[in-house]
Amino acid sequence: KLSSLVLAFLLCSCSVKKLEGCKKKSITTTTVSTKATTTTTSSPPPSYSPILLIEPETFVVREGDNITLPCHVDAIVSDKHEVSPCPCTDLQIVWKKGNKAIEEDDATRVEVEITENGSTVTIKEAQERDAGEYVCKVLDVEIRHTVEIIVRPEVVPVPESGLVTVKEGEPATLACKITRGGPKTYITWKISGYPLFWLNDAHTIPKAEKWSAGVFVCTAQNDWPEPASAEIRLDVQHAPDISITANKDFTYDWTRLTPICNIEASPEATVEWYKDGQKLDEEGIVVKGNNYMSSRILLEDMGLGHENYNDTWVINQDKLGVYECRGQNYLGEASAAIDVYRSCDRLSVDCFKRVKQFIPTMGTQNNTDELNER
Predict the structure, then answer these.
(1) What residues contact 259, with CB distance under 8 A and at least 6 apart?
(2) pTM here?
């Protein structure tokens, strides 16, 4: 009996161990199966894309005006094509200019406003530096606006003095420089109110003549209402150029004769009067203009007046002769003359004639080639 009990005990113990081992394996298998099921049934969150209401635009504004850039969202669409209409106040919207995010500045010149269906950026009192590309990014979608600023133009002459001086026959370059206005600003040219077909901000006259001198105006223009202008005065320096004439002035008793000498010169010429090669003491009456001057002398008692019927009067022979004016500057000299050969009373047709007068040297006589005076 004892042997039978021992055998039975041993058999039972073995059976219990086998059962515990199976149970343990079964628990392990169930745990793995549960984890696998959890992994298989999980899925990523849905992604969304916005539908934007607006297209990229170019905004052109004047300096000092306000700029408002819109970025409106109509709805968002999931990757399963599910449409959720706005308002979308929880959307993440970022504005950038270049690589820099746009934020409200301390001076409140820039304002970023979130609206029910997007965002707007307002820039107050636009400046030239506000021009460029602005990007509104909503989730993974971007819209790009371009801003152009119309800037008030400014222009200065080159050189800044506004004076260009050359000698006759030399090249002359006239130029202006645009200092403000932006890339769309262009220059036009005028002289004495007449347009010149110069297309650039600089122009060279290959061979300046004395008639090339004058005041040139360059005008900078863009879409700003008022253009800007600068003046350049071209001074073409040359030797004097002289012409001469004379006026008769009748009074009741006598006739006066006024020789008038017109001189063009740059720089200004000095003018002297001569009679028969001898310098006169009087300097004459001088009237000056731009690169121009006139000088005149007054000759009294050169003839009878309207109501002088003195049949015995004759002109003083000392008043007859060649009256000459001479002009000189550092570039040269010139002269012009008239020959007063008779009295200039009311009945005479002519009393003087123009002659070509050379400045005499010692032992040289005056050349009196006549030019008709009519």
Answers:
(1) 244, 245, 246, 273, 296, 297, 299, 323, 325, 338
(2) 0.65
